[in-house]
Amino acid sequence: MSQKLTIQKRPRNAGATREAILQSALAAFARSGYDGVGVREIAQGAGVTGVLVNRYFGSKEDLFSAAVEIAFSDDSLFTGDASQLATRLTDAVLVKTDKAAEPIDPLLLLLRSASNPRAATILRDSIASHFERPLRSALTGRNANERAAMILSFFAGLQLFRKVIGAKALTDGNRADLYASIMAAFQSMIGGG
After folding, report:
1. Which tens digit of pLDDT belongs to each residue from 93-120?
2. Distance between alpha carbon 116 and the CA centroid of its chain, in Å?
């Protein structure tokens, strides 16, 4: 008597597949930038086909936009008491850029993709939505738009110089002095002084 071999198909899970594609895309864009990675490479990282990636996201540009939204979705720095904003920003930038900290995927995605004009537009829009507008609404006084942009620039610059470039003055200096200097700079921009 012959036995019939039955092969069970893996259950389909659209949410898990979409998440796997997004995580693969985020890692690939952070590693190689928008222009340095293709849909096939992202699909391979997610264990799916390029056709499936396009079915879920439509295009590489739409996939990039979705990955950016995930990368920039944490707006927790801007929630809570506005009087503690400088402390939250200072703490966050020093923790994120500590030598032992994981690489900063959103920063790497930004740095490695901004040279592409369409990617730059997506990045700019997402930064405005997730960071600039909430920050601007937390600020009082004149020139809130400019101050919000300067705060974000300072934050990103510190990330770049401490974590990516490894500027010795910012990585090896006295932590208490560095903390005080960064805090004072944030307070000045927040207060408009």
Report:
1. 999 999 888 888 899 999 999 999 999 9
2. 17
